[in-house]
Amino acid sequence: MFSKYKKVDPLVAKATGAQATDGGADNVTELPTAAPEAPRKSIMKAAPVQAVAAAGDKEKKRKERLGDIKLELHKALLDNLNLAALENATDQDLKAEIQSIAQESLDEMGVVLNRDERQTLTKELFFEVKGLGPLETLLQDETVNDILVNGPQQIFVERDGKLQLTDVTFKDEKHLLRIIDKIVSAVGRRVDESNPYVDARLQDGSRFNAMVPPVAVDGSLVSIRKFKKDKLGIDDLVNFGAFTEEMAAYLQAAVSTRLNVIVSGGTGSGKTTTLNALSSFIDNDERILTIEDTAELQLQQTHVGRMESRPPNVEGKGEVSPRDCLKNALRMRPDRIIVGETRGEEVIDMLQAMNTGHDGSMTTIHANSARDGVSRLENMIAMAGIEMPLKAVRSQISSAVNLIVQASRLQDGSRRMTSITEITGMEGDVISMQEIFKYQRVGLTPDNKIIGHFTATGVRSHFSERFKLWGYDLPAAIFEPVAAQ
Ligand SMILES: Nc1ncnc2c1ncn2[C@@H]1O[C@H](COP(=O)(O)OP(=O)(O)OP(=O)(O)O)[C@@H](O)[C@H]1O
Ligand SMILES: [Mg+2]
């Protein structure tokens, strides 16, 4: 019956035979993945279909029962399937095989399931073998942005900017570790006690980070930033209320006239999304080079060279840092350079590139405001070991960076461009800057949604002459403050 993918190991074959004669209870509990606290026999007692009749918590019981059965079947599957042979199996073949193994085990358990339950079970078992187990349904759910696993029993997702606890769980830490291992070994990495954290990219492009015990105290921590095939464009962001059409027109002028732009923001505030959207304003005939830790940007232009930096391997060798990529990029005749995130010594080369002929370059930094962003740049330069007087550092920054765009995730989960600030030069030892647009908060609705609006600050753009010379004659109305409604 399990002809194609069944293990040929005689011991297992014998054990499976035993399963058929004695109900398989002992055989299954002896498997390495078996949980000692969940002996097979008790499940069989809990399983009869009649027991689930109580109207009130019928659904809950059904879930529990399915969960238990799934564990059993999963064990049976791991025991019966020849995992090596699976690599070449078609999904259809594999599903059929899983279905027949599952049906046989269900018969042995004396469990009757309806069609829906059987289908759900087969799907979950399929994900277990071929995909990322319990995470797979969340990965396929289009409404989920982030998946955050805090140990085997707690999985949060982010939908519409809000974190929600899901009812998805792993069986135990071992199960979670097996899925982590599956992900990282697919990209030639390893994660264990001696090397307890890892960054990787899932097959679909999603960004993956894991940290395992003992560094992760209560069980492995996993964070997944889902890859969006259709990144939000300028129009989407305007429609979502991330910024206004007037701001978009200003940004178009800024990017087209090759101002150097930094997108600043906190974790998950929408920096990469903003950078991606801004890059759509770049002319199609420019040569753009992108450098990222994990390739997330999706530029629509024809002439794009993408680079991905690489961390050192297990032996600590083979690292290609963002700085290495950046240095190399400068020899590759770029018109513009886009660095996914500047967070270390590459800041030196980034500023230099911005200062020396690669204007129109863009990057993101982690900071909470434009001012804070400048301090971050100063700190990064200091930490890169460059011994320069602060004034010289600041002067370097002020001549390199023209615009800081602040992305924020507000407390109601909405993501907005809360400020667009121009850097205009130096005044004494201080970098002078002026805010052109901002998000004005005015209050909270009873259900905690933020009330506010975007407005220009009324300050005339430092670059208006430049815009005009390049053919972007922005109407004066764009820069007029909006009165509070
Ligand atoms: N204005 C927006 N409205 C709705 N969703 C958004 C908006 N901006 C970004 N997102 C979504 O929020 C998630 C996080 O966005 P993004 O990856 O751009 O953040 P980030 O600041 O680059 O995060 P990180 O700090 O982890 O790199 C993504 O799934 C993205 O699709
Ligand atoms: Mg990002």
UniProtKB/TrEMBL annotation:
Region (Disordered): 17-39
A Pfam family it matches: T2SSE
Domain Bacterial type II secretion system protein E: 130-406
Low complexity: bias regions: 17-26
Superkingdom, taxonomy of origin: Bacteria
CDD domains noted in UniProt: VirB11-like_ATPase
Signal peptide interval: none
Gene3D superfamilies registered for this protein in UniProt: 3.30.450.380, P-loop containing nucleotide triphosphate hydrolases
InterPro entries recorded: P-loop_NTPase, T2SS/T4SS_dom, T4SS_GSP_E_ATPase
Any one GO molecular function term: ATP hydrolysis activity
Family as reported in the entry's similarity comment: Belongs to the GSP E family.
Protein name: Putative conjugal transfer protein/MT3759
